Structure formats: structure tokens, C-alpha cells
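Quick one, C-alpha cells below:
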């Protein structure tokens, strides 16, 4: 079942005194299926947050429509079933982590012992049990981000929308949020999150949608989007002088005595070099084929979106 389906979703802002029209989201049609982690990827200003705000009913589409669990947006019915992490969550900073959670739990309709139980349980889930009694203003950025995810889960939503959950986090913080998103999937939730941090997307997402300049450029499984072609083969060998002739055509990346790291543009050239090095009495240390990464793909698509450059 599609958890989310958008059709021709469009948002045009009118800015400035002359009401210049800015198309932030342009004819966006996509669907998110039950149980998947969907990465919504695009550079700054691509239209990710605008899309998410429309899904949340915070701003109205200029054109097009969307439905969440078959309920059209905006509607209380759709809203009720979503957990949402905004791009810039704001806190009453003098509350403790637990107080902040309980306040928001009240707003989502929980009361009494259940409110406390649920708040504590979610703080535990995001690794903040020990910080529950500390004021939110003393939380690190990573802790605040995890608190944001905890509050998004208060109503036990089946669908979780996270706007840039990894932004501003160090590698450890990113890993924690990544693990948390995988845990949500394990618990049967569907996750839609926006980001421009591509390595996170590669390790996490079942499918991605690439949005550039308000338009959805690609959507699919990462493996299907990336070119399977090997772009370069990196070779590290121990090669005495006599065995180096076949390496002449390669780009040298590093050299330490007899130990050489070189890069070949394709596999046959690298294979031939390996045979020659071995025949000459050398040794193979490592051989690494490089395929297109999501980052390569992204840069390629951005280049295509910008069109041919002059000059
Ligand atoms: N309230 C608004 N009024 C006018 N223009 C807006 C408004 N909100 C967003 N925009 C414009 O819409 C475009 C998309 O912005 P949006 O915030 O959706 O991008 P984003 O993909 O979330 O970017 P980022 O990665 O920086 O968060 C930008 O050109 C932005 O300037
Ligand atoms: Mg944004």
C-alpha cells in the first residue's frame, strides 16, 4: 500500500513588493510504500522543506494534491497518523528533557501515567534516558535532534517525516540517528526523510527521490540509479623496478619505495597490469574497483540540470 502519494504537487511563492513568483516545488508526483525508508535528496533550496510543509498541512499547495493513508492533505485525519521532525525544532529550553516530552505528550492527547510512561520510553529509545532530568538548553545539537525524533514518535505514528534529521551532527551523532531510523523501520514504521548528506542515504534508504530546483529528477532504488560501470580501478602493488613497465599508463596516486598505488580507467588495463607485475616478481596488495557513488550521481544530475556551461 502507498503510505504517501503526491500528484502534481506544486508550490509557487510570491515574494517581495512586486510579488515575483518563485516556484519552490514544481509538479511533484511520487509515492512512498509501506515499510520503506525513503530519502528525499536535494541541494539547498531544492524544495524539500516546502514539500514537507505541504504534507504536514503547514502551507497550502498552489496546485496538485497529496494523500497520506488515502486521507487527502491537509486534513486532521492525515496529520494524526504522521510523526514530524521539523527542520529547525524549537524548544522551551528551561524545561528538562522529560518535561519537554511530557508537555508535547499532553498536546498529542496523552495524560496521566501513560504520558509519563510514553515520554520515558521514548527518551530511552533515542538514548536520552540519562539526560531526562537535564535542561534542554544544556543538550548538545545531537541530543536536541534525538529529542526531536523522540517527540515525533509520541503519538506512535505509522509514518514518520523527518526534515534533515542529520543536519549539524558529527559522525557519531549521524550514526546514532541512522541507527534510530533503522530501528523505526524494524518496528514497522515508514520513514520519509530529507537530507543532502549522501553517504547516509546510501546506507539507509530503500529508495530515493532526487529533487533539484523544485523538480523531481529521479526516483528509484539507489542501485538502479547509479551507473554500474566501473569508473576507475585502484591498484596497490609491491613492484620492483623490473615489474613496473605495465604501470606506465596509470595515474600514480602514492609511492613508498617499491609500494605503488595507481589508478586505471578500466578493468582490462588493471588486469593486464596485475599479470605483468606478478610475472615480474612483484606482489598484489589490493585492487579496488570504483563504481559511481550517489555523490557522483548527484553531481552528474546537478550538472545536467544546469545545462551545458558556456565557454
Ligand atoms: N515562505 C517562503 N517564501 C518565499 N520563498 C520561499 C519560502 N519558503 C521557501 N522559499 C523558496 O523556495 C525554494 C525552496 O526552499 P526549501 O526551503 O523548500 O528548500 P530545501 O530543499 O528545504 O533547502 P535546504 O536544503 O536549504 O533546507 C527556495 O528558493 C526558497 O528560497
Ligand atoms: Mg530544508
Amino acid at each position: 500500500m502507498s503510505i504517501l502519494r503526491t500528484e502534481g504537487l506544486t508550490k509557487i511563492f510570491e515574494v517581495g513588493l512586486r510579488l515575483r513568483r518563485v516556484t519552490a516545488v514544481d509538479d511533484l508526483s511520487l509515492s512512498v510504500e509501506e515499510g520503506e525508508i525513503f530519502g528525499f535528496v536535494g541541494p539547498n533550496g531544492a524544495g524539500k522543506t516546502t514539500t514537507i510543509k505541504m504534507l504536514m498541512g503547514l502551507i497550502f499547495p498552489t496546485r496538485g494534491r497529496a494523500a497520506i493513508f488515502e486521507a487527502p492533505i491537509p486534513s486532521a485525519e492525515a496529520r494524526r497518523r504522521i510523526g514530524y521532525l521539523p527542520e529547525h525544532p524549537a524548544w522551551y529550553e528551561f524545561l528538562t528533557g522529560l518535561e519537554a516530552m511530557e508537555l508535547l505528550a499532553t498536546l498529542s492527547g496523552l495524560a496521566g501515567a501513560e504520558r509519563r510512561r510514553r515520554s520515558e520510553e521514548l527518551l530511552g529509545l533515542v538514548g536520552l534516558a540519562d539526560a531526562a532530568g537535564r535542561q534542554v538548553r544544556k543538550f548538545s545539537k545531537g541530543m536536541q535532534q534525538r529529542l526531536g525524533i523522540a517527540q515525533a514518535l509520541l503519538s506512535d505514528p505509522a509514518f514518520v517525516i523527518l526534515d534533515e534529521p542529520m543536519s549539524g551532527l558529527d559522525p557519531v551523532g549521524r550514526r546514532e540517528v541512522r541507527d534510530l531510523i533503522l530501528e523505526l523501520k524494524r518496528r514497522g514504521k515508514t520513514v520519509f526523510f530529507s537530507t543532502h548528506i549522501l553517504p547516509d542515504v546510501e546506507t539507509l534508504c530503500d529508495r530515493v527521490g532526487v529533487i533539484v530546483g523544485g523538480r523531481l529528477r529521479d526516483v528509484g532504488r539507489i542501485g538502479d540509479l547509479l551507473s554500474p560501470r566501473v569508473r576507475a580501478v585502484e591498484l596497490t602493488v609491491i613492484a620492483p623496478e623490473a615489474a613496473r613497465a605495465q604501470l606506465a599508463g596509470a595515474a600514480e596516486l602514492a609511492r613508498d619505495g617499491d609500494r605503488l598505488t595507481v589508478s586505471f580507467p578500466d578493468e582490462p588495463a588493471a588486469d593486464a597490469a596485475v599479470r605483468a607485475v606478478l610475472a615480474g616478481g612483484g606482489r598484489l596488495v589490493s585492487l579496488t574497483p570504483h563504481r559511481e557513488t550517489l555523490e557522483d550521481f548527484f553531481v552528474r544530475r546537478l550538472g545536467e540540470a544546469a545545462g551545458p556551461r558556456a565557454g
